[in-house]
Task: inverse folding
């Protein structure tokens, strides 16, 4: 039982990190009605900015305080992501208002490749580290309940708490604020939203900035765990099955989908891996997403679309 619970908790914590990336997809989809293939590139770009600014700022300002350096690097990286959001709206999305969804989809693909190239040009293409002081030593809990206790990773635990808090704040932002309601209105119908005075350009800048903030937090956490390298953008591919399970329009769905996939990956690798061979953790999420596409394509919490003719 102890080993099962360790695996379960590990899956839940990884699942929260998947949810953090998936929420970027949901945010963009809710505001523009298009699937944002640039989210993985945004995670990588934000992580590169954080890693490099944390190196450069102490040299520029001549101090050695790592906490202050990380804080200033976070502010600088967030300013970069807001600037990226403004440029995306000004140069791309603002020119494509009321265009077909496939046009916006291709635009996000172009943005993804552009950010990948821009990141290499500005920040370099080596492997960089992000050290924000998260403890990496294990934590032993419930020693009086289970023989030997449960071994948890402190870094994963803290990362999961941060991810859960951010997801909760964003969910409240969408449900309880006037800006969040405006974002939902824009997602439903661009022209109708404009006709009642909702400024489409400002809404898109806001939502891409919020998605950039989520990408920055996800990039910091994953960069702290894995190092900042260009394979980091591939981590975002794990968020695709998450949004398929949870629903493209649901922030709570992103949470549930992430937890299901995180737990499913860990349990299947441990208990089914010896029978089916290794590598289940790689393809499990995509097979589960395929099953959902066949049975419930709108996801667990997504809105069912009914077209009347």
Result:
């Amino acid at each position: 039982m102890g080993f099962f619970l360790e695996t379960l908790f590990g899956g839940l914590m990884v699942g929260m990190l998947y949810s953090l990336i998936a929420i970027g997809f949901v945010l963009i989809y809710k505001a523009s009605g298009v699937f944002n293939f640039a989210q993985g590139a945004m995670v990588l770009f934000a992580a590169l900015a954080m890693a490099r600014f944390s190196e450069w700022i102490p040299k520029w300002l001549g101090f050695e305080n790592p906490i202050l350096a990380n804080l200033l690097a976070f502010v600088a990286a967030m300013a970069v992501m807001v600037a990226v959001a403004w440029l995306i709206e000004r140069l791309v999305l603002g020119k494509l208002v009321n265009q077909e969804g496939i046009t916006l989809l291709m635009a996000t693909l172009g943005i993804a490749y552009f950010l990948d190239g821009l990141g290499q040009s500005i920040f370099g293409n080596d492997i960089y580290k992000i050290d924000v002081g998260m403890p990496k030593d294990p934590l032993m809990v419930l020693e009086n309940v289970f023989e030997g206790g449960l071994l948890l990773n402190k870094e994963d635990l803290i990362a999961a708490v941060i991810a859960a808090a951010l997801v909760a704040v964003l969910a409240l932002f969408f449900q309880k604020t006037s800006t969040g309601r405006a974002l939902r209105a824009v997602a439903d119908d661009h022209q109708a939203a404009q006709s009642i005075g909702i400024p489409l350009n400002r809404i898109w800048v806001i939502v891409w900035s919020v998605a950039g903030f989520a990408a920055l937090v996800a990039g910091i956490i994953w960069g702290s765990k894995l190092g900042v390298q260009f394979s980091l953008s591939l981590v975002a591919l794990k968020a695709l099955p998450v949004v398929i399970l949870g629903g493209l329009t649901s922030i709570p769905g992103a949470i549930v989908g992430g937890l299901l996939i995180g737990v499913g990956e860990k349990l299947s690798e441990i208990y089914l891996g010896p029978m089916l061979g290794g590598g289940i953790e790689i393809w499990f999420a995509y097979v589960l997403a395929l099953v959902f596409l066949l049975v419930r394509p709108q996801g667990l919490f997504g809105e069912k679309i009914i077209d009347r003719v």
About this structure: The mean pLDDT is 80. The first strand starts at residue 138 and ends at 141. The radius of gyration is 20 Å. The beta strands are 138-141, 150-153.
